[in-house]
Structure formats: C-alpha cells, structure tokens
Write a structure and sequence with these properties.
This protein is mainly beta and 237 residues long. The chain has one domain: Jelly Rolls. The chain contains 3 helices and 19 strands. The strands form 3 sheets. Strands 1, 2, 4, 5, 7, 14, 15, 16, 18 and 19 form a 10-stranded antiparallel beta sheet that branches. A 7-stranded antiparallel beta sheet has the order 3-6-17-8-9-12-13. A hairpin with a 2-residue loop joins strand 10 and strand 11. The longest helix is centred in the N-terminal third of the chain and has 5 residues. Bound molecules: calcium ion (2 copies).
C-alpha cells in the first residue's frame, strides 16, 4: 500500500528570482527513497483521509498523515551528499484534530534541523465543552518565545465538530524561509506528542516541503541557474 506519494519538483532560480519548473518524479515513501539522495523514516503515524470541505480548503487534499496512538510520533528525512548550498526552506500543513491539550498535557509538536529545534509549541482547541486550551501554546522559535500571532494568522480552515479541528499552513512561517545551512548532510525531523490516541486527539500533517537553496554557479556564466529541490509529501491521489 502506498503510504505516501513523494513528489520531487525542481525549481530554477536566476539569482533572486525563483521560477517554478515542472514535476519530475513521484516515489512511494514506504521505505528507502531515492538512493544516495535521502532516506526517510516514520514513527507512529498513520495514513488517513477526510473529504470534508474544510480539510480540502485547508490543503488536506486526498490522504494525509496523523498521529494515532499516545506518545511521540515523528517523521525524519535525511539528505546526503548535498551540493554547496547556503540555506534551506521548510513548510507543511498541520492540523489540530480533536481535544489536543498542549497546556494541560503537553501535547506539542516540534521541528528540528540537524538536531537543532527550529520551532516548538502546541495547538489547542480553544473553548469547547466547558474546557479551555489556548489555540497556540508556548510557541517558540529556536527556543525563544515568539509571536504566536504568526501561527494564528495562518489558520486556514476550521472543521466544526465536538472539539473541532484547526488547520494551519506552516509554509507561511518566516522562520522556515532561508534557514542557514551549509553542511552536505541534512536531517529534518517533524514530531508531535499526545497523551491520548486518535479517538481523543491528534495532530495531522500534509504537504511537507524541504527546499535546498544551492549556491549560485560561478560568475561569468551568462545565466546562473540555482536549482532548488522541493520535496513535497502529498497524501493520496
Ligand atoms: Ca484531549
Ligand atoms: Ca491530551
């Protein structure tokens, strides 16, 4: 069964101008992906679908990954032998599903690059059924409390149910754009923890993207093209 459809697209940049190029490949991510380029691993995440309008509006088209059991869930992507580059870009869509309790239960998420925490925080349900949890809890960038309005501003859809579901577009986070990185290896991990299973609460993920901003070609070329590798995880078809 296809767990993922990995979509590799190349973008071409001419100096500061990024041009979207065509789709070049699609790979299942249920094991080793493109050899010598990267590997990936997934822990405690399951594939699911939700065809509700709000999910579609929020970008969760087709299937996506969500946490299932209590505990920590994660996805890790490892890149090797990267060409010279100056920075990377990250992005994904995240859903807070059901009664996630970041304040009371420490139901939180984080993103690390080479083991360094870029963001962390929790997404709560607000006020529901006599309980209250902040929509955004303890949001930090590089370990420092940051303006949570950055996150709330990206809220793109709300699924009305007993506890509701919020969908946030983390492609819009400034902190994910131009993360300084020069090593020829890269490890990106997205993780989330809940103290109860999906019947009560979960985090969902879709459209994970990892862009590599390569160093410009040597001066003297009439046109310097800087390839940008975008890895998009798109669930389902
Ligand atoms: Ca809960
Ligand atoms: Ca909880």
């Amino acid at each position: 069964m296809k767990l993922f459809r990995i979509v590799l697209t190349f973008c071409l940049s001419i100096f500061a101008t990024t041009l979207q190029a065509s789709l070049i490949n699609a790979i299942d991510a249920d094991g080793t992906l493109v050899s010598n380029v990267f590997s990936s691993s997934f822990s405690n995440l399951v594939e699911t679908t939700d065809s509700s309008t709000a999910y579609q509006t929020g970008g969760f088209s087709g299937s996506y990954l969500r946490t299932d059991a209590s505990g920590t869930s994660s996805m890790t992507f490892v890149f090797q032998n990267l060409a010279a580059h100056s920075s990377i870009n990250l992005g994904f869509i995240i859903a807070r599903i059901g009664s996630v309790d970041p304040s009371r239960d420490d139901d939180v998420f984080s993103v690390t690059v080479d083991g360094v925490e870029v963001i962390s925080g929790g997404l709560g349900f607000g006020n529901a059924n006599g309980f209250s949890e902040p929509l955004v809890h303890d949001y930090k960038e590089y370990g420092v409390t940051a303006n949570s309005s950055i996150v709330t501003a990206t809220q793109s859809a709300y699924v009305s149910s007993t506890w509701g579901t919020h969908i946030y577009d983390f492609n819009d986070l400034d902190v994910f754009s131009g993360i300084s990185h020069t090593s020829d290896t890269l490890t990106v991990t997205i993780s989330a923890s809940t103290n109860q299973g999906y019947s009560n609460e979960a985090y969902g993920f879709d459209n994970v993207s990892i862009g590599i901003n390569y160093v410009s070609a040597p001066a003297g070329l009439l046109v310097a093209l800087v390839p940008m590798l975008i890895l998009c995880l798109r669930r389902g078809k």
